[in-house]
Fold:
Amino acid sequence: MKARTAIALFSFAIVAALIATSMATNSTWGQRSRYDRLLYRTDVVRKSDLWRVISVDVEFPGKNSYNPYFITQVVAIDHKRKDGGYAQLRKGGPGYRNVTLHIKSARNHGLNYTVEVFGN
Ligand SMILES: *[C@@H]1O[C@H](CO)[C@@H](O)[C@H](O)[C@H]1NC(C)=O
Ligand SMILES: *[C@@H]1O[C@H](CO)[C@@H](O)[C@H](O)[C@H]1NC(C)=O
Ligand SMILES: *[C@@H]1O[C@H](CO)[C@@H](O)[C@H](O)[C@H]1NC(C)=O
Structure:
């Protein structure tokens, strides 16, 4: 392989990786039916912090509160078009009465998420 071709391929790979990691995506756990209600909705908005990854835990229900419903679906909407974050289901979720989501920003970027919890 000619060096120039190799460099071109290598650059392409880097650009592709940057694009792939900077796209914002929504995450959904479970399924909801039309009988389910919105149990909780919260916005998670944080400013960027130079060179940092911002992590936020979203807990439902909060400490000392009780949720009588079973969760069917958890949705994490990333409002950013690019440089989006990453949401992970840490505890509970569909089939449980509680849920903890862990949301991380891209390094050097803020967060703009809406988390919704449905259940019945
Ligand atoms: C995420 O969900 C929101 C609200 O439903 C929608 O406007 C947006 O296009 C979705 N983003 C992606 C990357 O699918
Ligand atoms: C977060 O996203 C919402 C919905 O797209 C938008 O109205 C709001 O301005 C955004 N906030 C920030 C700080 O970017
Ligand atoms: C959810 O509730 C169960 C018991 O019902 C408890 O063991 C667990 O620690 C709770 N998880 C969270 C994330 O609060």
